[in-house]
Design brief:
The complex is a heterodimer of chains A (110) and B (885). Chain A contains four helices and five strands, in the order E-H-E-H-E-H-E-E-H. Chain A has 110 residues and is an alpha+beta fold. Chain B is α+β, with helices and mostly antiparallel strands and 885 residues long. Helices cover 54% and strands 16% of the residues of chain B. Chain B is built from 29 helices and 23 strands. In chain B, strand 4 and strand 5 form a beta hairpin. Chain B is globular and about 115 Å long. The chains are: A alpha+beta (110), B alpha+beta (885). At the A-B interface, helix 2, helix 3 and strand 5 of A face helix 2 and helix 4 of B.
Chain lengths: 110, 885
Amino acid sequence: MLTTPTDVLRGTLDLLVLKTLHLERMHGWGISQRIEQISKGTLDVNQGSLYPALQRLEQRGWIDSEWRTTENNRRAKYYRLTTGGRKALGVELAMWRRYVASVELILETS
Amino acid sequence: MHLFKGVLARIRAIVHGTRADRELDEEICFHLEQEAAKHERSGIPPGEARRRAMVAFGGVTRTREAHRDVRVVRWLADLVADARFALRSIRRTPMIASAAVITLALGIGAATAIYTVVDAVLLKPLPFPHPEQLFVIGEDNTEREWHLQVAAPANYLDWKERLPAVASIGGYADGHASTTFTGDGEPRMVTTVQVTGTFFSVLGAQPALGRTFRDEETWEGATPTAVVSSRFWRSALGGDSAAIGKSIRLNSKQFVVVGVMPSTFAYPYRDADVWLTMQWSSSAREQQSFRRAHYLRVITRLRPSVTAASADVQLQSLVRRLQQEYPETNEKMSASMVPLRAFLNGDERRPLLLLFGAVGLLLLIACANVGNLLLVRSIGKQRELSLRLALGAGHPRLVRQALTESFLLSLLGGIAGLAVGWMGVRALASTQSAELLPVQEFGIDWRVLVFLLLVTTVSALLFGIAPSLWGQRQHPANALREGSRSSSDGRRMRRWANTLAVGEVALALLLTVGAGLLVRSYAALRRVDPGFQPSGVLTVSIEMPGGRYDSTAVLTQFDRALLDRVRATPGVLNASIVSSLPLTGSGWTSDFAVRGRARDDFATEVRHREVSGDYFGTMRVPLLRGRTFTEADATSGDHVIVVNDVLARKYFHDTDPVGQQIVFDRAPDSTSKWRTIVGVVASERQLGMQIEAHDEIFAPLAQEQQGSMVLVVRTAGEPLAFVPATRRALREIDPNLAIESVQTMDDVLDTSLGRDRFLMTMLLMFASVGIVLAIVGVYGVLAQTARRRTREMGVRIALGARAAQLRWLVLAHGLKLVTAGLLIGAMLALVLTRAMQRVLFDVQANDPLTYLAVALLLAATGAAASWLPAYRASITDPAVVLRVE
């Protein structure tokens, strides 16, 4: 059992963000909280690295953003999955599963 | 390295704006706040909560940098790489690249210049508020072939009072008037315009200083007032605001300056210095002459709610009422109105549109040429493209590189084009054809420049990326295997290049035919006999100030003294004085009737000039019958006249006009002054070289002396060499006389041909550029074809073909292209040059000689362009070719 939370693997952050935005639009902090919550603290998203990732996803056209007010009446930038992003999520997910399965296979057989 | 990074960061901030940075900061700020708030909720003190939030975030600056990198770096890096690649590739084919850039520069530059001028002259609104409400009302008379003529003052006043559609109406006395201004220094000529008091308010023109005229100032009464131009205000009144209220002396009369116009106001003449009011006497209105003398150019501003059509209905009904009320003067008079803009543009429209069309053709050729050059070049790069595809370059990336390259070429061409356009506009503005370009200052129109840049860039892009797009459909392995020999895409591109070259030749032929027609027209104009011998004649225009020169006796004495002095100058062959020069269109006209003919047998619009001394001898106008004037005629009191042979033929047919009597009236009565014809002279063209001589009557100057006159001196040798002597003679007689202008008669003739020469020169320039571009296009295609067939040539030589046969192979291809282009171009020209007929003189738009000459010229240059690649192909060394493959 690991006592310190694992760093998010390079490249998987994008997948996590896409998955998180799958349900509803969210701002950056919300995304980081959601990932932490659902992983029950086992995954530690480096909060700072979240923003370049969001920018990258936006450039690829997978998500888009919009300034809105929060329930506490603060201005925040909300991100949302685009149709392209939805498709990409499917592809990325499939790839990830294949990847995990392969790693699993190797670990089990050797 | 450190320095470099700092600079790069700054560039990034500039390139990508600070907006993204600001937004990111706000986002991070929000994030940290939320995180800190979360910790505070679990009971951690605010300071510590903030610290923990920062730690969890892990370095704001680093995030910011990373964010920026994502935003900028990839894009920038790709761009830099593409640009460097493009530069390298341009450097590899410097000939084609520079040809493309020069082509773009010429096309963009010429089109920008011409469009800027056309826009300034034809399209820009007049510099008055609500110019769409401004109209010119002119008088028509079918019998005299008048249309939109200047109006008689009495008719103008009726329009002013009886047209409800008119918001305001005013006018000016048509025709340049020069007046002697006597200020502190030498007396000098200034251009004055007589206007109604409403003139400025109709146009909505505001003074820079003081006020403009009031309506009541139209009439005689108070002290005469003057409004001056800002140029006059600066040069003659010291540019002092105290000038308002000052008195100035014009032709020995005093005027009080009441206003100064801004420098932007130059109406109706560019060189207008002083505006004066009409000063009509209140009794004049009842006199018939007030309705008979036509000299007022009338401008009106319609009420905003009124349409031009309904205003015209009112005008026409008023015209009919006036015809009934004043049958003696108005029976045949009607009136019509046109927008002021259309009136001002009347004559410039056609030549400018012709230039516009020509420059459009040139731009088309330029686009085709750039496309062609790039296409030809990319055919050469087919193999390279295939290779790079095979090595794993992405298609989008290849397209992007082609785009960058084309864009870079366009950019270079655009910059050079801006330079050409700037020079072109300045050259156009400085041409002598003042009447063609009534606007003095042109700014380059940036919108136009951008538009043209877009057009050419798009065409460059289109042809620049076409090969890389076509390449997509082909498997790289195939292209590589077939090498440069015969891929289907290559064939398609070559077909395109051929088509473009043919199109260029066709358009070049069209342009050159246009230019050729103008050359023929100009040559025909130059061959026209103006009716006099211009070379060796000096003309000096003099304005006689009123006051001192009001009596006939004084004037006659002045004329005689002046002529005696000038004739005494060694080298002067003859000298005389005339009221106005031929070819300039100035002068006056009247009706006339012949004694003994039926009452309604009269003529209209006969031109008048007055002469003193041996005018016909000085100008070498042949005397056909009778005699010219003698010294005695000037003083004898017998009214004698000389007519030109156009008049003699028109009104006297076979009978001898000499001895007949005429009168300047249509219905002679007991008060009429009868004049006896003593001679018939050959006809001078009065209105210009393009226009047949009108019927004309000459009288001795002493009988009808006017304020302005022209001294005409025939000299042995260069006329301008006699200017000092002539000036001296004038000064000796009256030191206060101002010389208005000095010109040789050849210059007068040149000026009258100014517009035709200007048009011809411009079209010749366009045509030569067009030909050069077309030749470059043909050459490019042939050079490429020849290179492609190098291997074939080698094989042919190895098999024993002779060099001449090989040359012919390439040459035939070139000639085929040129011939196709010529045929298509000739068909286009036959249709399109018809629109030119109106600007042509004595040449038909389908003039066979022009077509033949132009076709031969283009065929010859086309053959020459084909020769070089043909020659190169014929000296192919088979051994080299085989080794290369």
